[in-house]
Amino acid sequence: MRIMPVGDSMTIGSAGEHTWRYRMWQHLNREFGGPYRIVGPRTGLHDPYSGAADSQAYADPDFPERARCHLAGWGEGWLHMAPLIRETVAEHRADLLLVSLGLIDLGFYTDAEQTAANVRVFVAEAREANSRIRMVLLPVIPNIRAESDPPFAEQCRRFNELLAKTVADLDSPTSPLLLASRPEGYDTQRDTYDGTHPNASGEHRLAAAYADAMYQAWDLGGPYEPR
Question: What is the pTM for the complete model shown?
Answer without folding.
Answer: 0.97
